[in-house]
Amino acid sequence: MMLQSMLAAAGGATGNPTQAILDQFGWNKQLFFSQVALFVILALVLRKFAYAPLLAMLEKRRQQIAESVENAEKTRQALAQAEARASEIVAQAGQQANRIIEEARAAAVSLGDQERHKSVAEAQRILSKAHEAGEAELARLKGELRREFGRLVVQAASRSTGDVLTSEQKGRLSDEAVRQLSA
Question: How far is the C-alpha of 57 from the C-alpha of 97, rounded, in Å?
Answer without folding.
Answer: 59
